[in-house]
Amino acid sequence: MVPAAGLEPARRLSRGILSPLCLPIPPSGLSKIHSAYISIIFVLASRALNWLLLLLLNELSNTQQKQFSGCSLEFITIYLVMLIIYVAVDFIWITLFMQPYFTSNLEHLLRESVGTSFLITSGSIFFVFYVLGLYWFGVRAGIGSNSALAATLSGGFLGFLAYGTYGLTNYIFFKGYPLSITLLDISWGSLLGGAVSLCGYLIFLRFFYQS
């Protein structure tokens, strides 16, 4: 207490700054709180996806309900298979190839340990929406043009844009970020995006195509 002014000296508060969701960003090192934030974001993303699907359903007329039920089965089947393929292949790529490569080149920027659960939990937010983009821009492009090449190139181009944005941003803003990792990321994203989109298109031809 300051006698002359009657004021108590200011004390530091342990509150974090506010995130875009108006929730305080936790201090570093609090893994449980970090996991809780990841869970909250995942739940919100899932709710947003459900809301979009319900909105599309409400826009359909009664005469289109029967056709929509078949389309929804087609979408869910193709999407889930694409998601499983993408997660499995990308997980193998990250753990067996990219993680050792990052360790040898960017060890000072990496976490001390990255567990499987952390990769799946944090990456699931990206996986869910990115594979949805591959279906929408890759598989549907192939279906619309009746071309496996169109599906492959469209999905590959989306992969090029997504991984290129990530890789080039790191290369521009991080000092000493290797150009080789940037080019490897872009090449892998393009290849995987095209391959997964092609798989989705082939599933459509095998199970849902009607001549």
Structure write-up:
This protein has 211 residues and is mostly helical. The chain contains 5 helices and no strands. Helix 3 crosses helix 4. The termini are far apart. Mean pLDDT is 76; it is low at 10-30.
Secondary-structure class: mainly alpha
Q: How helical, in percent, are the residues?
A: over 70%
Low-confidence stretches: 10-30
β-sheet strand percentage: under 5%
Integer-rounded radius of gyration: 23 Å
Number of strands: 0
N- to C-terminal separation? 85 Å
Biggest sheet record: none
Number of domains: 2
The SSE order reads HHHHH
The rough form would be described as globular
Mean pLDDT figure: 76
By DSSP (H or I, 4+ residues per run), the number of helices equals 5
Task: Provide the descriptors you would attach to this structure in a database record.
211 residues, mainly alpha, 2 domains, 74% helix
